[in-house]
Design goal:
alpha/beta; TIM Barrel; 6 helices; 9 strands; 22% strand; binds S-adenosylmethionine; binds ligand 2KA; binds iron/sulfur cluster; binds magnesium ion; rSAM_sf; EC 4.3.99.3; magnesium; metal-binding
């Protein structure tokens, strides 16, 4: 199956439980959710006029909304051609779960990679059972509560973006019906804001949750 890919690059995972792990990022094009503070607004629209060749999205800056069709084998070939050594693939976007990524994730796993998905919980998560799923819930956004509940139940990690106490209250409401015993719960300050970071730290200590900061932004790497 083909998927629209905005960019592929090798870096260090900057967020969540795998912070510090060398990773190959595959960023899919397309997201209908529309978070005001989104880091990757260039991925929202899949426009026919922005379609490019497969090579044009490999290890190039994807900060414009161009995309190319790739499947698992063309991606794995590209990783090998570029000499990537990371064994951890992060499938992000855009919103990767707009697409059924069972094919893609199964082939990556069959090729020996560990796979993580970054998703907003606004679409049902359809992927291989061994994928580590990070849900960064987008409350009151597209998808509705039933879909979000499926995504949160599947999640290995719940990484909530926060700026104010209201966002923490929303997370409390979401977690009321979810068994989080085997899940990592973390708070991620939005856009490195000082007040958000202080609130996240204070709340993580009080609740024994984890802090996720976007370390790649502090390091100024991709
Ligand atoms: C760009 S999103 C793509 C994957 C998916 N659409 C999602 O929202 O999870 C990847 C991660 O970045 C987070 N994120 C996006 N913009 C951010 C910002 N300005 N500050 C902090 N986190 C942000 C999202 O919440 C998510 O955890
Ligand atoms: N280094 C690095 N870590 C990340 N973790 C999640 C990212 C994302 O955009 O989904 C991201 C990203 O863009 N870069
Ligand atoms: S769901 Fe993810 S990609 Fe989509 S707008 Fe929100 S943060 Fe950006
Ligand atoms: Mg980035």
């Amino acid at each position: 199956m083909n998927y629209p890919v905005n960019e592929v690059f090798e870096t260090i995972q900057g967020e969540g439980s795998f912070t510090g792990v060398p990773a190959i990022f595959v960023r899919l094009q397309g997201c209908p959710v529309g978070c005001a503070w989104c880091d990757t607004q260039q991925t929202w629209e899949v426009l026919a006029q922005n379609k490019v060749n497969q090579a044009d999205v490999i290890q190039v800056d994807g900060t414009i909304g161009r995309w190319a069709e790739h499947d698992a084998s063309s991606l794995i070939q590209a990783f090998q051609a570029k000499g990537y050594t990371a064994k951890h693939i992060v499938l992000t976007g855009g919103e990767p779960c707009m697409y059924n990524v069972t094919d893609l994730t199964s082939e990556f796993i069959a090729a020996g990679y560990a796979v993580q998905i970054e998703t907003s919980g606004t679409f049902e998560v359809l992927c291989h059972d061994k994928v580590f799923v990070t849900v960064s819930p987008k409350v009151n956004m597209k998808g509705g509560y039933e879909v979000l509940e499926q995504a949160l139940t599947r999640a290995n990690e719940i990484k909530h973006p926060i700026a104010t106490q209201k966002h923490i209250d929303e997370l409390d409401d979401l977690l009321a019906n979810i068994d989080t015993q085997d899940k990592v719960v973390c708070l991620q300050p939005i856009s490195q804001k000082t007040r958000a970071t202080e609130l996240a730290m204070k709340t993580c200590i009080a609740r024994n949750w984890r802090l996720s900061i976007q370390t790649h932004k502090y390091l100024d790497i991709d």
